[in-house]
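Progress report, Aim 2. The chain analyzed during this reporting quarter is listed below.
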Amino acid sequence: MPDRKLFPLCCSILTLAVQLPVIAATPAKRAARKNEVLKVEAKKITSVEGLTEFDFPNGLKVVFFPDPSKPTVTINVTYFVGSRHEGYGETGMAHLLEHLMFKGTPTTPNVPGAFQEHGARWNGTTSFDRTNYFATMPASEGNLEWAIRFEADRMVHSFIAKKDLDSEMTVVRNELEAGENNPQAILYQRVFATAYLWHNYGKSTIGARSDLEAVPIERLQAFYRKYYQPDDAMLIVAGKFDQAKALDLIGKTFGRIAAPKRDIYPTYTAEPAQDGERTVALRRVGDVQQLMVAYHVPAGSHPDAAALSVLAELMGSAPSGRLHKALVETKKAASVGASNRPLKEPGLIAFFAQVRKEDSLDNARSTLLEVVEGARATPATAEEVERAKNSLLKNTELLLASSDTVGIILSDFAAMGDWRLLFLQRDRVKKVTPGDVQRVALAYLKPSNRTVGTFIPAQSPELAEVPPTPNVAELVREYKGDATVASGEAFDASPLGIESRTTRNALPGATKLALLPKKTHGETVTAQIALNLGDEQSLMNRKTAAGLAATMLMRGTKTKTREQIKDAFDQLKARVNIFGGPSGVNVSIEAKRAQLPEVLKLVGEVLREPSFDEKEFEQLRRERLAQVENSKSDPNYQAQIEFNRHLKPRSKGHPQYVETADETIANLKAATLDEVKSFYREFYGASFSQMAVVGDFDAAQISKLASDLFSSWKTPKPFVRIANKYVDVASKNSALETPDKANAYFLAGMNLNIRDDDPDYPALMLANYLLGAAPLNSRLAARLRQKEGLSYGTFSSLSASALDKEGTFSAFAIYAPENLARLEKAFQEELERAVKDGFSADEVAKGISGLLQQRAVSRAQDGFLAGTLTSYLFLDRTLKWDADLEQKISALTPEQVNAAFRRYLDPKKISIVKAGNFAKNKTAEIARPAN
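Predicted structure tokens for the chain:
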């Protein structure tokens, strides 16, 4: 059983319960009712050790606990709603409603006075899983009848009025403030909040101050109407009473309340397994240090709960407990405790220590953790277990002997699922063995599952008070803004429309230039520069140096540091990125018309005058190593490496060779700054380069500036394009294990012997669009996402070289590892269906429209357009090629599309690579043979 000193289920969230005054009221004088409705019959469900449950047709549960030896009778009504059921903005609502339930009904406007007249001791309590109301009064038929009628009345007729909320809110706020004075109580809240990322157990039952102060009465009333109903309640009558008369009276009162038509959906938020120690520190005024360590454990109904309660008892009890001996007797702590609080859903087992200011909190923490987690390696002795069980069983036995207090405990177990769990838990405790205790210690007392909270007293804690949210309507009421941004022109983004506006020329020194001036919103301009470097032989074994050289360009010039370069681009309001590898470097630029010349000059300096600072090089290498090392456990990265190595085999050292993560790490570690400088000296220049500018700029000015910047920059070694080679690789189906990853990656595809001017290419483009490239409306998306819900993201792609007969079809999907077999089966079925049955005329017609519109949208983006113009300069193409391609797409027939798809796509040649945490899901099929 939990330590009630640490976890009282009281009106407040934690240890500080505000005991409302003992109050009563006059019994209502009721005339005989002429139209008295006949009682509703209850059904007896079970009897356990003197307690009997009856269920009424409207869902109300009734438990009788007769005790003739008591001259009192206790009425306890439990509603199975607590802070666990609160929504956003509703924290503290269950507890606030508990207070308002004492504000009266039309027949009992003065609840405290009514209780007082009946000599009752009464109160209400709210917890995570339930709210209950109880009163103990002298045993008499009159008192029992009044109490039952009153509880039935306030179940459905409580005022829950705005005026009562206004006055009671400040009372509850004061209760919150009283709890704030208790460091141990607040530390407990902080630990729960830190241990739970999503579940409402992480929110205190008393709620947030802002929610208490601002909650609308309508939300409270809706909460009341939803949960305060007979099908969500249990009535306990205990003490001295006539059972037959009580059952008859309940039938005439509670039994007459109609069963509600609304549904209550069970809460379903489940806290994921904690994946590392969490810590929280509390600094407030205080005189004693506090320490708390908590671990996630199963729900109170789980069989492990008994052994965990024994574990908490043998750890936290005094003077025999392990914590007492290790911390109190050694003077490392003033007091200790432990608790396994049973809850409806998975909760926490917690261990505590109070440490005087003059003693070391760090020493206490290390000792507490050593003792608690030491239970994994140092099993509990038979003597320890027996002593703990005796203590727990004694408390249960004494509790069951007290009919006036057993109701609250029964409420807790009923909120866990059934009041009989109290007895089941007792029986389970009796059977706990030392082996059971060690088993649960091994299962749950893990460092990765722990949350550590510390309270550190401070004389003057520094709190950062965040001001309230401003009134935005007031802020913008008179706002005028700056001058209106220049608007752009209506632009024809068709291939021929673009072509009619584009000028091309070759600058001295062989740089090719494409210019597309047009008015844009905000006078923006986009540019791209491509430098082509080296040949196959000269670039062998230079891949690492090439990549580092490209990245080092923005890290300093002969006159500017990395920081100064960034500041300069920021002041010019420009975004510049440089990336590259063995055979080329690309520069992307976004700027404004007025600043573009200065931006280009700075780009020229960055490209032509790098400093290759040694400190920056070491920093870059460490960054790259960290990135690659991090990717070693990433399913996406690992699958792509494996897939590309299989489909694009090259000899080691070749510029197009796909490295493993370990090879990349080894090459980065071995790289030197001298190698990077040497690569730059041997290959960098603009003799084989292309540049495209799109947007609002002066064409003559930019053309001259580009010539000035790049015409004299000669490339030391000639550039010779490395040909892409088609390889007819055998199909492969492999799986890579990536532990501790919740998401897996699926990648499938094959090489294609095709070039983008092949007659079949337009049909293949459209077939790929219909199969997997159409956003959320492709065959793969419809099956894997829309129909079966297996993948958030699935897509297919088709690439074909413009210069070599070499292309690739590929498809990917992300998914949960346990769904691998289903996902792979669905993918193969859709691919086979597309090859066998083809695409319908309706699909093809809609696909043509969608694909052409998608291409039009892409051309409307200046960045995409600049990239296209740059690559077309390299290919000696114009946008006339796009116009011809789209005309061919428009004319496609279903027969052409299906014939081309069958000609090139062979399901038996598809290679598949899967990466994920498959070992955790033993039933997942992780390596099926290829077809």
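The first helix runs from residue 93 to 100. Residues 43-256 form a domain with the Cytochrome Bc1 Complex; Chain A, domain 1 fold (CATH 3.30.830.10). These observations will guide the mutagenesis work planned for the next reporting period.
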